[in-house]
Amino acid sequence: MFTQPNMYKVIKSKKDSIEIFKEQLISKNIISQSQIDSLEQKYSNLLNSELEKSKNFEYKLEDVVNPKYKGNKTLTHKWSQIKIPEACNPDSEVKTGVNVEELKKILISSVFYPENFKPHNRLVQYFINSRKSSLEKGIIDWPTAEIGAFGTLLKEGFNCRISGQDVTRGTFSQRHLGLTDQESNEIYFPFKDEHNIKLDGRLEVNNSSLSEMGVMLFEYGYSLENPKNLAIWEAQFGDFVNGAQVYNKYFNFVKGNFKIKLIKMI
């Protein structure tokens, strides 16, 4: 209403979509009003019941790894090989290092582009050539470290998926997983070109619409489907003041004994 009052006056004058749907079902004799009332009450009771249970509920690692557990069997089946840091011996089972020469190869490949491709001149100077120069000096900045993390995961067969507004270039124009040809408008992804480097995992980079909560919840669900999926949702720096954001609070999305927290970033 602050910025588009006329449009929202029209919206407010309309019935809720759920009410329209109910009327359609009733008019077609698919369901009765009493049945709808019963379903709504049943669902409301379920939500309230589960809410009360959640207030004193705690996950235990021995439960979520047990296929016979009556509740959430989070770390069973395809997730059963996941190593939990809390359950590992220090410096024995969890090793995250990579070969230095392999890492250099991955980092150099991140700024490769075909001979006839024409990226923006400023990117060539301040991003591509700058990264090559820094690597020759043994200098790795934060964006280069991020690319190295993606590249090494992909090399090991893990899938990396990142979504959000302008994630291809990065919120602060620091990432550039894809380069845009200044004449053809074609986008080239160095990590997707097997002639550049062979990576066994799947890279997905999706610039998404301004629907933060919808996108974030989709990506959270996507991350739960496969232990080999790294799913990242990146918010634009200013998006946390958008009305679609829940801000000043954080979410706890519980998966087993893990919590993913969305916190206010500004």
What does this structure look like?
The protein is of the alpha/beta class. The chain folds into three domains: 57 residues; 38 residues, no CATH class; 163 residues, Rossmann fold. It is 38% helix and 11% strand. The protein has a three-stranded parallel sheet with strand order 4-1-5, sandwiched between helices. It has a two-stranded antiparallel ribbon with strand order 2-3. Strands 6-7 form a two-stranded antiparallel sheet. α5 packs across α7. The longest helix is centred in the first third of the chain and has 22 residues. It starts with a helix and ends with a strand.
- The CATH architecture of the largest domain can be named as 3-Layer(aba) Sandwich
Q: List the helices and strands in order.
A: HHHHHHHEEEEHEEE
Identify the strand order in the major beta sheet: 4-1-5
Task: Look at the structure and give the CATH class of the largest domain.
Answer: Alpha Beta
- The total domain count is 3
DSSP helical segment count: 8
Helix fraction by DSSP (H/I, runs of at least 4): 25-40%
Radius of gyration using CA atoms only: 24 Å
Q: Tell the overall outline.
A: flat
Strand content: 5-15%
Looking at the structure, the CATH topology of the largest domain is: Rossmann fold
Q: Which spans of ≥5 residues are poorly predicted at pLDDT below 50? A: 243-266
